[in-house]
Write a structure and sequence with these properties.
Chain lengths: 226, 226
């Protein structure tokens, strides 16, 4: 039974970019000496809050996270629903700001493997592939982010709205909710409230978003980005 | 003489984020076994072009680089002037895209220490501080980049122009030239050509930018960002 459980854990860990390419042999050894904490967060409970210290990596094995991000002036809020497997903000255990930048809540009961920062550094010392995975993951993030400003101009206001939403997504797929007033969105896009309203209604007519008071719902971000 | 040269090299390497915090002792050992190439690029010559393969890290010890970046649709071009010390795109030797994303030209004769990717990995294996510097540097880049979309809305068109320029800078200081038509800038900012022209002229009147046909010059980005 124990053995079966281990095999299941290996399979699950291999889904995470940081463990990709590792052999079962490596993973067996790792389980032998790395301190893994197993954490379960019940539905509706917070996993961590914005500004909490990030000194562990959380690998979500199962469940759904609600990730909530306010604009820096709290003028609007963005909500995402992230399914496992997901690694919570690996770019925050190093660097200038070692605090989370979002609120994470268990939307469905979530199971995590948690690894301490020191252990992550040990892993990157002892496993070349792990170190390379970590460097590749962080570099990839920089590359994707840095490309953003150089993209072509959106052709119309609808495309501007799609880009506004897309730039704020952790994952470019799944359901999103944006709690934003039409006037704020108009300011963000440097356009009139009326034109923004017309464009949003066009997107709603196409079935890509749903509008309600102070809220835009994107049922499937992958469809909006098409 | 050799010894004096070595000490000078140590001092210069310590200016780079990747070598920060290393002892002279460490650096002496490193110089003993890491393959450093010394490269000089004469004024006016290319150091590398956009899309060249990035399999080395270039540490610029002296000189000035002209860094040229086209928009992805080549609708405008951004030019920066970067003084030593400067590490050329450390986020490009790992990750998805291992190619440079800018053109680099020696504006004044430039001296580089060049280190192979394999040697960089060896350094990060053998020196904890080097590995931590590398992870911190990449993480910091992600953090800075990821914060961008969440900033407050610019209050007026002048601020939008400043943000447009600021988001495209490698360094938020020094001289920049943007080769862009007023119509393109107006499209980027979702505003009218006339209003963009008025705002640019205000900025020029304040001495923060200089306008010429198809070109905006920022003499000192640090002043524009104030």
């Amino acid at each position: 039974m124990e053995r079966l459980y281990e095999i299941q854990l290996f399979r699950k860990l291999l889904q995470f970019p940081l463990f990709q390419g590792m052999s079962q042999d490596d993973l067996t050894k790792i389980v032998g000496y790395v301190k893994f904490d197993f954490i379960k967060v019940e539905r509706g409970k917070a996993v961590m809050h914005e500004n909490d210290i990030c000194d562990h990596l959380y690998f979500m094995l199962n469940g759904i996270l609600e990730v909530r991000t306010p604009a820096s002036d709290h003028g609007y809020t963005f909500v995402e629903h992230i399914h496992a497997p997901y690694t919570i903000q690996p770019e925050r255990i190093f660097g200038l700001i070692q605090h989370y930048s979002h609120d994470f809540m268990a939307e469905e009961t979530c199971g995590f493997v948690r690894i301490d920062k020191e252990e992550i550094l040990k892993l990157s010392d002892n496993y070349f592939i792990f170190k390379l995975n970590l460097l590749n993951l962080l570099s990839r993030e920089v590359q994707v982010c840095a490309r953003e400003p150089w993209k072509s101009v959106p052709k119309n206001l609808e495309e501007r709205i799609v880009r506004f939403i897309g730039q704020r997504c952790i994952r470019p797929a799944g359901r999103k909710e944006i709690f934003i007033k039409m006037t704020r969105l108009a300011e963000e896009l440097n356009d009139s409230r009326l034109d923004v309203s017309i464009a949003l209604n066009h997107l709603q007519d196409k079935g890509l978003i749903q509008l309600s008071r102070g809220k835009i719902t994107v049922p499937a971000m992958e469809d909006l980005l098409k």
